[in-house]
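Example for tutorial group B:
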């Protein structure tokens, strides 16, 4: 049975109207998006493959591609892996997604990707790394850090300490919390990880649910800045 559209009201006409309301600016980047993927030791190799494959599948999805490839309003994307306090690694550097070929290049770059680490879970340091990464992003109307993870911080400063010490400015932090390991992980992400206007957490029951949940979350992140800039309420 065909799956219903994620946002039935978010059709091509609505996107076009929102885009028309944006300030006139040639090829203005609308969103810098940094994806942080959990590679701590709680993530098995099959779970790691689901995570990487889920990102690739989402980027290949026609609805996601339509949301990315808005004419003259590209998206800048970077992807990093994170684990312990000193274990963060960019696996896809900042890439401006202005064509299907640009998206295909990111997917190809992730083919055969070998996990960078298998350490503890330093959520706070992952936030710090992602925030610093976004400081070096192309100039865009909105900046979002998207952190996926299945556990609480157990190495280094916790998220609250990072937020006290590092100025995230206008950066929005969203989360994708994965269940199956720690009870209350969704509440943990809601209470202490996400930040900024319109920030949200999506929840996957376990790693097998990561691909469809990641796709849903990515669509929210791609469309919310467009509607916000156009004067429409941000998607919740």
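The residue assignment follows.
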């Amino acid at each position: 049975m065909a799956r219903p559209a994620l946002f039935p009201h978010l059709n091509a006409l609505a996107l076009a109207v929102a885009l028309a309301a944006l300030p006139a600016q040639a090829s203005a980047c609308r969103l810098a998006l940094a994806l942080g993927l959990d590679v701590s030791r709680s993530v098995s190799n099959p779970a790691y493959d689901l995570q990487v494959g889920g990102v690739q599948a989402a980027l290949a999805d026609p609805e996601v591609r339509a949301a990315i490839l808005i004419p003259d309003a590209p998206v800048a994307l970077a992807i990093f892996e994170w684990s312990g306090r000193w274990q963060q690694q960019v696996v896809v550097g900042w890439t401006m997604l202005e064509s299907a070929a640009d998206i295909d290049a990111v997917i190809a770059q992730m083919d055969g990707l070998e996990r960078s680490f298998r350490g503890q879970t330093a959520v706070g340091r992952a936030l710090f790394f992602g925030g610093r990464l976004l400081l070096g992003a192309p100039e865009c109307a909105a900046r979002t850090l998207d952190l996926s993870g299945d556990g609480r911080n157990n190495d280094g400063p916790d998220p609250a300490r990072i937020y006290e010490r590092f100025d995230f400015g206008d950066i929005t932090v969203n989360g994708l919390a994965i269940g199956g390991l720690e009870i209350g992980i969704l509440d943990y992400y809601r209470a202490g990880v996400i930040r900024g206007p319109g920030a949200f957490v999506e929840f996957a029951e376990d790693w097998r649910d990561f691909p469809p949940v990641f796709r849903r979350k990515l669509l929210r992140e791609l469309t919310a800045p467009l509607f916000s800039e156009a004067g429409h309420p941000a998607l919740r």
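The radius of gyration is 17 Å. Compare this with the pattern of hydrophobic and polar residues in the output above.
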